[in-house]
């Protein structure tokens, strides 16, 4: 068991490619931490630095009480599961799993065999112990790779996008299985993924990275409900958060622009104090928008683009009559984390199936939207920061972020 | 014109049933393949024929029974008991085995370092290796002789072995390097996380996986060392220390040529190559096709 500490860790590739920039984070003993971010965000680099497969340009990484910067991978008490599984093709599953124990311990053969069988039972791969990896399916290979890691009972598990080569259904299944095993073994785990859904469902805490910089770290619910900046807001959550551009009139407690909403004056004044401009981004998740067929108080008219049936509810894509593009107001150096579909400019709302007739699709028929302002986030387009912190940051989240900063 | 059915086929404008067509096609194919094989093997067959009874080709064709009635193994007897053939054979075996083994070891690690490790001058080194392949062997023969003479390596089997390793290495390293570059790096990384040193990872994971490629380079080294003539001629002067190719050449006298003896010796020299190719041929095929598809 081990705690991991990143102390101003920096990685520069070649002469000038900055992959990780002064990364600080402490991972508690037994914690499941997910590093999530788009490709090129430096998350895999960080993991490989912990593993010792990548040199550390600056700063220190501690595993337990040891600074591991100059330790070779074999002396770090870690086990890693690779995206490609990296099973040794010339060895049987049994030998694959025993490989590490034979190299790193003095255990007698019968004990190694016992431990391999125990781990195989845990992963449900006993029948395949004497097969070569090429005879296994993708899911089975993944289990062998995980089994090879757990059999060594290391201080730290490192997962590098271990599920990304599986199909969607198997991925969901393995997700819960990995989580179960981690809880059972209570081993400190760093899990790298670009899939925010995986991050949300599995982790004790999520660290969101972009361009080698830590954007926010906290429990899944906190980063979902209280994103610190517009990147986190857009990256976490699927479908992603709607972003509207509106101008704040603090004294009236009213936003006008893409959407017109009212908030209480104290909150508006607090926002105005935090913000550097009065044209702001309003972030509202699809579940916090309500669709009315008739006009109601404070409603905003919109036209229906497409209705996607998802099963328990439908996803309605809508367009505003004259929206200002987020790209037009946002500062050049502010990242608005596009999700995988790059649909940050589309507006979405969850509706009950059948609550909006399908004939509205693309017909120009007007629906009326109201917004749950208590779940609304306000971002400064110049800095990307959440300027509505007073009202949305809970005590618990403040403790989390404070913990992350030390 | 008759209506064609599905079972009809056409060959050189002649209509026939599908069955006949298939048979003719198979017959043509086999005739072609077997005549090619015959063509390739004729010299070998002729070596056997002449070694048993020296006869001219015309006489052999006219009346093979004359040849058959005078067949004997005297040439083989003479080669084994009357000449240094066995010593040459032994020397060739020693040099070839040593050169092959040594070049495999050096080339495995050399190719790995050029294919995988990051160091300054890696590309330059690889290009330089290829460049050395562009000189004809004879060009370096004299300078090499002078160097070896000063080092006391002339007229020794290990001197010859070193020369062979040096000639085989560039090509072998170049070939293995390509193989290593195609192996996923995560395999060594996994082995290193699993408690191996880098050299341990190479020996336990990379070498077993590159067995086909290593076998291919081994065959290359073997054939080169077994057949090499010029270097052996220049570096070795004692008949008791020379290898088969220059040894056999001494049988070609200025005024006389004992064809049966020469052919018997040549056949004896060919057998080890036959054996090694027979056992390693599947690796050659594998090795050459390796990297074509991702596994």
Key descriptive features of the protein:
heterodimer; A: 406 residues; alpha+beta; Rossmann fold; OB fold (Dihydrolipoamide Acetyltransferase, E2P); 2 domains; five-stranded antiparallel beta sheet; disordered C terminus; B: 295 residues; mainly alpha; MetI-like fold
Describe the sheet with the most strands of chain B. 2 strands, antiparallel
Provide a count of the helices of chain B.
14
The average pLDDT of chain B is 85
What's the overall geometry of chain B? flat
* Order of adjacent strands in the largest pleated sheet of chain A: 6-7-8-3-9-10
SSE map:
The complex is a heterodimer of chains A (406) and B (295).
Chain A: E1 4-13, E2 17-27, E3 32-36, H1 43-51, E4 58-63, E5 66-67, E6 78-81, H2 93-104, H3 109-123, H4 138-150, E7 156-160, H5 168-185, E8 188-193, H6 196-202, E9 205-210, E10 213-218, H7 220-225, H8 230-235, E11 242-249, E12 254-257, E13 261-262, H9 265-274, E14 279-284, E15 289-292, E16 300-309, E17 314-320, H10 326-329, E18 347-351, E19 366-371, E20 377-379, H11 389-392, H12 395-405
Parallel strand pairs in A: 3-8, 3-9, 6-7, 7-8
Antiparallel strand pairs in A: 1-2, 1-4, 4-5, 9-10, 11-12, 11-14, 12-13, 14-20, 15-19, 16-17, 16-19, 17-18
Helix pairs in contact in A: 2-3, 2-4, 3-4
Chain B: E1 8-11, E2 14-17, H1 18-52, H2 57-62, H3 64-69, H4 74-82, H5 85-116, H6 122-132, H7 137-151, H8 157-182, H9 185-193, H10 198-209, H11 211-227, H12 230-235, H13 244-249, H14 259-289
Antiparallel strand pairs in B: 1-2
Helix pairs in contact in B: 1-14, 4-14, 5-8, 5-11, 6-8, 8-11, 9-10, 11-14
Description of the molecule:
The complex is a heterodimer of chains A (406) and B (295). By secondary structure, chain A is of the alpha+beta class. Chain A folds into 2 domains: 4-224, Rossmann fold; 237-390, OB fold (Dihydrolipoamide Acetyltransferase, E2P). Chain A is built from 12 helices and 20 strands. In chain A, the strands form 4 sheets. In chain A, strands 6-7-8-3-9-10 form a 6-stranded mixed beta sheet, with helices on both faces. In chain A, strand 9 and strand 10 (213-218) form a beta hairpin. The longest helix of chain A has 18 residues, at 168-185. Chain A is elongated and about 75 Å long. Helix content of chain B is 75%, strand content 3%. Chain B is built from 14 helices and 2 strands. Chain B has helices at residues 18-52, 57-62, 64-69, 74-82, 85-116, 122-132, 137-151, 157-182, 185-193, 198-209, 211-227, 230-235, 244-249, 259-289, and strands at 8-11, 14-17. In chain B, a hairpin with a 2-residue loop joins strand 1 (8-11) and strand 2 (14-17). The chains are: A alpha+beta (406), B mainly alpha (295).
């Amino acid at each position: 068991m081990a705690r991991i500490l990143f102390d101003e860790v920096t990685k520069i590739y070649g002469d000038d490619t900055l992959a990780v920039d002064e990364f600080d984070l402490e991972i508690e003993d037994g914690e499941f931490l997910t590093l999530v971010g788009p490709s090129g965000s430096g998350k895999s680099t960080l993991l490989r630095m912990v593993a010792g497969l990548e040199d550390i340009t600056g700063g220190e990484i501690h595993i337990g009480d040891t600074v591991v910067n100059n330790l070779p991978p074999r002396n770090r008490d870690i086990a890693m599961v690779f995206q490609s599984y990296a099973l040794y093709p010339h060895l049987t599953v049994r030998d694959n799993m025993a490989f590490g124990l034979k190299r790193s311990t003095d255990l007698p053969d019968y004990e190694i065999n016992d431990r391999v069988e125990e781990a195989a039972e845990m992963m449900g791969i006993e029948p395949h112990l004497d097969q070569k990896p090429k005879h296994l399916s993708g899911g089975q290979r993944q289990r062998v790779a995980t089994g090879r890691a757990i059999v060594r009972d290391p201080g730290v598990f490192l997962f590098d996008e271990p599920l990304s080569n599986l199909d969607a259904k198997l991925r969901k299944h393995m997700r819960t299985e990995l989580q179960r095993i981690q809880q059972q073994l209570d081993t400190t785990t760093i899990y790298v993924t670009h899939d925010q859904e995986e991050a949300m469902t599995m982790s004790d805490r999520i660290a969101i990275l972009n361009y080698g910089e830590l954007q926010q770290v906290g429990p899944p619910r906190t980063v979902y409900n209280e994103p610190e900046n517009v990147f986190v807001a857009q990256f976490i959550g699927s479908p992603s958060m709607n972003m509207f551009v509106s101008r704040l009139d603090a004294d009236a407690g009213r936003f006008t622009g893409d959407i017109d909403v009212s908030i209480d004056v104290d909150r508006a004044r607090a926002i105005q104090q935090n913000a550097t401009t009065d044209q702001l981004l309003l972030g509202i998740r699809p579940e916090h928008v309500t669709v009315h067929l008739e006009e109601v108080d404070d409603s905003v008219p919109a036209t229906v683009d497409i209705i996607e049936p998802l099963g328990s509810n439908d996803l309605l894509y809508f367009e505003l009559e004259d929206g200002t593009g987020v790209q037009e107001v946002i500062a050049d150096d502010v990242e608005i984390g596009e999700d995988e579909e790059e649909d940050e400019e589309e507006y979405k709302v969850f509706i009950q199936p059948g609550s909006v007739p399908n004939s509205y699709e693309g017909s120009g028929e007007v629906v009326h939207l109201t917004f749950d302002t208590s779940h609304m986030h306000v971002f400064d387009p110049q800095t990307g920061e959440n300027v509505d912190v007073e009202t949305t940051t809970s005590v618990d989240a403040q403790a989390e972020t404070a913990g992350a900063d030390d | 014109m008759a209506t064609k059915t599905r079972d009809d086929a056409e060959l050189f404008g002649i209509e026939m049933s599908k069955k006949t067509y298939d048979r003719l096609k198979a017959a043509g194919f086999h005739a072609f393949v077997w005549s090619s094989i015959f063509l390739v093997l004729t010299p070998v067959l002729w070596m056997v024929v002449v070694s048993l009874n020296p006869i001219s080709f015309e006489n052999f064709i006219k009346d093979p029974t004359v040849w058959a009635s005078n067949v004997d193994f005297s040439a083989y007897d003479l080669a084994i008991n009357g000449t240094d053939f066995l010593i040459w054979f032994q020397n060739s075996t020693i040099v070839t085995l040593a050169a092959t083994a040594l070049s495999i070891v050096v080339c495995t690690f050399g190719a790995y370092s050029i294919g995988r490790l990051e160091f300054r001058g890696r590309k330059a080194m690889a290009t330089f290796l290829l460049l050395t392949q562009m000189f004809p062997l004879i060009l370096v023969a004299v300078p090499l002789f002078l160097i070896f003479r000063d080092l006391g390596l002339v007229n020794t089997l290990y001197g010859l072995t070193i020369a062979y390793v040096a000639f085989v290495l560039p090509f072998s390293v170049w070939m293995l390097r390509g193989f290593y570059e195609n192996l996923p790096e995560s395999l060594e990384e996994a082995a290193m996380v699993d408690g191996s040193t880098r050299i341990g990872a190479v020996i336990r994971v990379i070498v077993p996986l590159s067995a086909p490629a290593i076998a291919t380079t081994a065959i290359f080294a073997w054939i080169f060392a077994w057949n090499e003539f010029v270097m052996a001629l220049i570096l070795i002067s004692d008949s008791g220390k020379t290898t088969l190719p220059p040894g056999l050449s001494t049988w070609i006298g200025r005024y006389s040529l004992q064809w049966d003896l020469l052919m018997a010796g040549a056949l004896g020299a060919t057998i080890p190559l036959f054996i090694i190719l027979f056992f390693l041929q599947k690796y050659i095929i594998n090795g050459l096709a390796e990297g074509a598809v991702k596994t």
